[in-house]
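Re: your question about phosphoinositide 5-phosphatase

S., sorry for the slow reply, the queue was backed up all week. Below is exactly what I fed in.
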Amino acid sequence: MAITGDDVSLDQIVPVSRDFTLEEVSPDGELYILGSDVTVQLDTAELSLMFQLPFGSHTRMFLQEVARACPGFDPATPDPEFRWLSRYRCTQPQSQLPTPHGWNSAPGTWPGCARIGGGSSHFDDLRPNGKGLFVDQSSWGQDKPEDLLPRQNKSKSEITDMVRSSTITVSDKAHILSMQKFGLRDTLVKSELVQREEDYTYIQNFRFFVGTYNVNGQSPKECLRPWLRHSVEAPDVYCVGFQELDLSKEAFFFQDTPKEEEWFKAVSDCLHPGAKYAKIKLIRLVGIMLLLYVKEEHAAYVSEVEAETVGTGIMGRMGNKGGVAIRFRFHNTSICVVNSHLAAHTEECERRNQDYKDICSRMQFCQVDPGLPPLTISKHDVILWLGDLNYRIEELDVEKVKKLIEEKAFQTLYAYDQLKTQVAAKAVFEGFTEGELTFQPTYKYDTGSDDWDTSEKCRAPAWCDRILWKGKNITQLSYQSHMALKTSDHKPVSSVFDIGVKVRNEELYRKTLEEIVRSLDKMENANIPSVSLSKREFCFQNVKYMQLQVESFTIHNGQVPCRFEFINKPDEQSYCKQWLNANPSRGFLLPDSTIEIELELFVNKSTATKLNSNEDKIEDILVLHLDRGKDYFLSVSGNYLPSCFGSPIHTLCYMKEPILDLPLETIRELTLRPLWTEDDGSQLENPMEIPKELWMMVDYLYRNAVQQEDLFQQPGLRSEFEHVRDCLDTGMIDTLSASNHSVAEALLLFLESLPEPVICYSAYHNCLECSGNYTASKQVISTLPTFHKNVFNYLMAFLQELLKNSAKNHLDENILASIFGSLLLRNPAGHQKLEMVEKKKAQEFIHQFLCNSP
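Result:
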């Protein structure tokens, strides 16, 4: 669970006063790993404190802000007393500041860490929690209370020879130059260094092992050496990915699984014995996990490590499908490793394509310099993409596929591979390369054997598990499956690469740097930057709910290097309205260079209601500011087509005509109509009991999808959602033609978009209090406004109908309660993050109504 401000209290307050110092340090004898945690020494007259912060842009920004807050004090000025802090101090003073246990052990050793491979080595992401304990935070936001204790299952030999640090070294000049305090001049130096990189770097090959394994929710039952140690030479880098790590409902809905540590240990124990490895990063999204290790001697050359996740499951969020990625700089080469699990089933090829595109567009990594725009996957020198991509073999029946496999006619079979045809059509993985498939399909087997699927479904074999790459100087040495492992219904796949990495020649680097600095010295800094814009007025026509529109323009710089940034207008908290975004919103331009800026307009649940009511309009002015230069003004205009998405329940009940057939003034009046207003006898009398749009979707699902497997768990297609939305907004329901999954997802998005949830905010806490008491819960529902009560009862009746067909659709009360609990029962505005306890109470509240007759 993510921690919010409500979850913490201040045990220790350290004012930034005259005697305050804060600096990064490195314990004696420690080997540098620029991607690991940052060790910080804090000193004042009263205390000395050493602690760690997680490596990344957030820590870098924090340290920069602290540095900015310490400009020095005038000796004549008395010390500030910080009286305002008194109300935040703990009522019981601490008698002694705790010290992390084991900190003062042998030089170069920290507790809880050890080597991996070649006579053991383990590299846990342990971080001090401020109370003298070290906490495992190697996966994001998934700590349980019992995890807040040191691991006790490590032998004495496993807690020696730790390898950690992210202290800045002289060799990490690119990292230093990215810091804000060095300003425009050093940004220009860095840019010129990038331009002239070939002058001071040479290519050196490093061996990369890339592996992927869908483990089907199983725990490790067999040694992974046949997969991870099959090559004679020890790899320099290991990139190991898993899918379906845990298939339990707890993992899906609450991000909680013990299997992360089980598989991490299984991998760490089976790395090549010919080297010692340091774990650089672990990232997990539900069952999708990615591990990155490097040889210990290479750790000093790893920097700028960031990790991100993208869920592409139902409603574009759930992490049962999606991707995780780790990006880092190795020497002077930027590398991004992506592990993805795309949509299943043979007929869902288009959905897989959409998942791929969503991961590419939504996966963004913060840069060390917060003034620079985030990096996308494509902005890297080398991209390694692995995972259960789930592309199948089509147009052949099961027996024909098995016959071709038996004959080892893999190339004949490959002609029918969906990924091959989609890449050829440039629908996905454009510019990527895959090695020749010389091994039999890796899915689907009977667990514990090499026999093809003998279940009732009898899935056709397919090459679901794949590894692709993109970039220069990459040679694939092997690409194979590993039949010896039988834990799962998939077989693991591996590929070994020699990758040419740009390594810096320090002498040539210094020479190049000196030339750049001398050139800059001759530049006239007094010149005022000036740019020209290809366009300053932008009109977005017929904007629709959740349908992206993009307009672009080009900035062409003059002869003076400059920084640009969209800045806030007076009395506004953002440079643009919430439905608009500029990409990139800031950046740096060399002389006579250009950059394309995209203005992205996207209306979602947060902005739709005010656009429906005409309280907000598609109108804005953007201010583009040049550092040391002038401001440029950009005009944005357009029109929004009102939608049932984002409209209140009671408003829709009074709309007997489709929303797009109503005058804008009528929509405005109905949207602004108070929730508890009684009918006034006007033309709005005799409202519908529930919104017609809700009835249309539920009726469609009732007629077509009560036996649909994975309903409300598998996402639909974006194009089909747009079609469903248009049918609802125009009333042309007879033309509705979409998959059951797309209509189901549209229903969930409709409920999520309601500005007042089905169970009103005012009833939220009462519902949580009486969860587990069905009689009291029914009483709370009876107090809801009539339209909301009708919708709740209607939905419960529909879900109970689905449960009557659970033998076919495989739904149960827990799944439906988890999905609908967070939609029907939402916490009041301003407290959007649900605690785990609240999530489970909301689930329990809905669960009661699914298990009891009305």
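Residues 786-803 form the longest helix (18 residues). The mean pLDDT is 83.

Happy to talk it through on Thursday.
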